[in-house]
Amino acid sequence: MRPMHDLVIRNALLVDGLGGSPRHGSLAVAGGRIAAVGADVGAGRQSLDAGGLALAPGIIDNHTHYDAQVTWDPDLSASTAVGVTTAVIGNCGFTIAPCRPADRDLTMRNLTNVEGMSLDALRAGIRWEFETVPEYLAMLERNGSGLNLAAFVGHSSVRTFVMRDDAARRAATPAEVEAMRALVAEGMGTGAIGFATSTSPAHNGDGGIPMPSRLADDAELFALTGALRDTRGVFMLTKGGQTKVSFLEEIAARNGRPAIIAALLHSNTAPDAVFRDLDEIDAANARGRRLVGAISCCPLSMDFTLAAPYPFEGLAAWQPALGQKGEAFKRVIAQPGFRDAIRAELAQPAVFRLFSGEWDKVFVVEVARAENRGLENRSFADIGRAQGKDPLDALLDLALAEELETVFVALLLNSDENAVARLILHPHSLVSLSDAGAHLTFFNDAGFGLHLLGHWVRERGALTLAEGVRKLTSDPARVFGIRGRGRLEAGCAADLMLFDPATVGRGPKRRIFDLPAGAARLVTPAVGVHGVWVNGERVVDASGPIPSAPRAGRLLREFAG
Q: What's the CA gap between 187 and 94, in Å, rounded?
């Protein structure tokens, strides 16, 4: 007699995650794993008729920043609702462990600036039940989560733990580097997925000072990534223009581990730069190095106010305003010399900038004063012409007149769809960069996978359904060494997404106020998702997250070599 399965999903379009042609059939689940896939898989205690909808592995979101949020919101329903079943946290090295009690407030203030998080929400929400990376991982495992989680050891946190206030001020001594390396090795030895860092000039912490990892010299990076050679795991870096792919290839060559290079986004003002990076990554792979370029399939659009002017903070000319508050900040941005310096910088070519002066792509979302209502939904190219002003002056003047409360939106990068299609189709690119858990008041790309399936597969036809699913599932599983996930095969974890290929996508963004201390965040609802299962437990149905669903996620600690 054939065994009775826990669940059988029948009449589904099976998309295996490996790029194979979709086929109609059934899938059985037992003990949290896929028990059988095919035409006849036997009976189940529960049975679901998929009605011809697509059944695929759950999405693996390899670039999130849930490190803080998961301590107060272990369900992470914003991601499960959009088909994500596994999330990698700690990207860019912006973690909250290791962290001494005396450094907690500094860590939170840094996250407020670099990741656009509410300081009130962080102070009210983070559960500080840990100090070291092993203790943090143990807490995640103890509390459970709605998603499977894998965690990086974060460079900025390691640096702060060892160097305290000097972490963002100077190079490390050999003894400090050795202490940092020991912390990285300790984290790797207890189940971290790798080591993450950033050299991006856009990554500034409290008061506008660089995030600690930006102060590391080459010797420090070689030493800390060397801890991977002795264990396993991946190296992840968000690079600034000064960091060369050739240097990252040398790191990969020394430690023999994969390197994920972020954030490779297309800029209309330097249209070839990202492709030069990808060409170098391609050449490195031809030499036997495992380098991957983390790209986004979404246009990078940010809501912001001048009270949190993240899009401008990577500009060198904006430095006098960094760390200034209140009236001091207003005085700086009112100065003609400050504004002229920004205009001069924007007029110069650059390999990469978050904001490059495309004023036709910067709009007023919401004004604070009724007399300015007519400016809403207009670009600053248009407003500047109408007012007889340079667009920068028009934006700063409006912000000052409204006590920095005006809400703007900027389409910053990845606005050229033909270029983005090239990024997606590159053989060594990794669909990534959702930033879920960060920049919650600026944007929300947690639904990046639904955008890939809806826009790039269905609407644009740039990928087949099988290719799109593979890029969201088995591709990241392979790169990160995540075993037994990302494909529909007997023995693999039953992380599943049921969706309608004819309607799948992400809905319009909206602002809700459900963070600790009543802080706001942007959300984008799922469209066309009919079910999500994490380790065999259904956590989402056609109405969205199931309130009574168990926290079925697991902390992943073992990875392929």
A: 15
Write out residues in the chain with pLDDT < 70, as ranges: 1
Quick check: is 285 in a domain? yes
Give 3-43 pLDDT, tens digit per residue.
899 999 999 999 999 999 999 999 999 999 999 999 999 99
**C-alpha–C-alpha distance, residues 242 and 260, integer Å:** 17
Sign of the torsion formed by the C-alpha atoms of 20, 22, 26 and 27: positive
Q: Is the pTM of this model over 0.85?
A: yes
Residue 56 has which token pair? 């695929």
Distances from the Cα of 212 to the Cαs of 7, 44, 198, 205, 250, in angstroms?
Answer: 49, 53, 9, 8, 22
Alpha carbon 40 to chain centroid, angstroms:
39
- Which residues touch 7 (CB under 8 Å, ≥6 apart)? 28, 29, 44, 45, 46, 47, 48, 494, 533, 536
The answer to whether 178 and 220 have CB atoms below 8 angstroms apart is no
Q: Are 336 and 438 within one domain? A: no
Run of H or E residues at 71: helix 69-72
Residue 338 belongs to domain spanning: 302-410
Whose CA is closest to 203, among 193, 212, 211, 194?
211
